[in-house]
Write a structure and sequence with these properties.
alpha/beta; 117 residues; single chain; 21% helix
Length: 117
């Protein structure tokens, strides 16, 4: 089961799973249903219409892109020896590298005469 199958990472996950011969249940919004079907999903769930964690199905592999449910919800729909993969996006802001400031004024350190040779 791939939740977030209609996004950038999810579309790759669907194709990779199908390439390995998996039966894929894709969870996405109504706008992306046809696309994930064309990518090869065997079953498609529109999360705006139904809660996939309450359908009573169990999965061997859950790829969760974005963490939209609780861990207990995922445990309930995962087979006992199943695998859970959580994919999250970490937003990075541009950070300037740290550069120590040179002291200014009369307290500024001076080079020792032996260093100037």
């Amino acid at each position: 089961m791939i939740n977030g199958a209609g996004g950038g990472v999810g579309t790759f996950a669907v194709q990779i799973a199908k390439a390995f011969g998996a039966r894929v249940t894709a969870v996405t919004n109504s706008a992306n249903l046809d696309m994930v079907r064309k990518l090869g999903a065997d079953q498609v769930i529109d999360y705006t219409q139904e809660d996939y964690t309450k359908k009573g199905e169990a999965y061997d592999l859950i790829v969760e892109i974005g963490a939209s449910h609780s861990i207990s919800d995922y445990k309930r729909i995962m087979n006992p020896n199943g695998t859970f993969v959580l994919v999250v996006h970490v937003f990075h802001r541009k950070v300037k590298p740290y550069r120590p400031r040179r002291p200014e004024g009369p307290h500024r350190t001076r080079r020792h005469n032996s260093c100037n040779r």
